Fold this sequence. Notes:
The chain is mainly beta. The chain is built from 3 helices and 20 strands. Strands 6-5-4-3-2-1-10-9-8-7 form a 10-stranded antiparallel beta sheet. Strands 11-12-13-14-17-18-19-20 form an 8-stranded antiparallel β-barrel. It starts with 8 loop residues before the first helix and ends in a 12-residue tail after the last helix.
Amino acid sequence: MSIFGLTSFAQLFQVTYKLQLPCGMIGLWRAENYVDDEFNGELLCINPIQGGIMCSSVHGDNSEKELFCIRVKPTKTEVKVIFFNLEHCLEPFALTSITGTAGSGKIGLKRSKDGFTLTRAGKARQYVKVISPSKTLPDSTRFFQPNSLWGAYYKSITKEIVQITYQKEEVDGKFVEAICGTKIIGDPNVPSGCVSFVLDPNTEYNVFDEMAKYRSEMCLKFEAGRPYMFDLTNLQPHLRHWIKGKIQMNPCKDTWEPVWLDIDCLVYSVGSEMGFCLLWTEPLHGMNIVINFSKIENFSDAQWSLDMPLNSVDLEL
């Protein structure tokens, strides 16, 4: 309440109702996507600012684009909620209600069962909560920070975003830990919300033995939508772990008929920077494909500490 300058729970109730955002609004939200939709997904970050909240679109290269901010102004008789559309005009255009028009762009918010619907330029999309990256660093048995976000180029000019989670999978009647990469921003091949790859962290392979299989072969790598040949041996001095798994591919453009291919995961570090590559052989032409993932970590500590659902007891934003 202090961020909004509110002094009573009655005022907070008014703000929550007028905002049309769900409780626990602070944090990350991803756009729901469908296979027959050309939209590739979006990651939104809602952060508190003095007197309101700011919503930005997060890109895979660690950059952000401010979409809108909402200011709250309490008065003696009511609480005014003022909306600023930052996406379609150079100068913020203030709206006295939560829905309106700025320039040629229309934008509106509406609370839904599992999140909220954001309407922009007449197109409504549903957004659901993304689990916040853990502050805990990976231990010796884990390769990635739980729930961390990673960006990579693959055929498109913008980076895709995946979220890494650790899950239990049943194998031969036993539950073992698996690393899952879920698309937050995807592409027609694997859309947002679908699992892109699954890795087995329980078995490590010898880096030198595995690298020997590719020593005389070149790989195809993508950078901002452009492919180029890449010598995998350049990575060898920096490799720390080599594990294996499966990646999901959809060879059919018009229908959802995915197949799973074997992949290698190469975890490397250069100085303090950590990353990983996914490597597989494209079955149609026999070409080795490598995708390089870099970590997205431009989120403030305030975001994570405030990323808790509101309830009748804890109403502090």
